[in-house]
Specification:
globular; Cyt_c_oxidase_su6B; single chain; mainly alpha
Amino acid sequence: MSDSEPADLSSKYVLQTAGFDARFPNTNQTRHCFQNYTDYFKCVAAKGEDFAPCKQFKRAYNSLCPNEWISKWDEQRENGTFPASLEP
């Protein structure tokens, strides 16, 4: 740590990963990642972006999914080519 960085930097940020989900008991979390991504957009479509429970899905997919996947899926949603229904 350099002298210019605050000593309490770690106390400013709380890093969390998605909690255990009994639907996905194995170590491979690919399906868990995809499910949270689709659940988030279904939730937003049904309840709106400000609905607090939707944010949990977003936190989970941001924690579980590689950024490249998220970027690709966002692009597919914008182009109307996403491979799953996001209707609530």
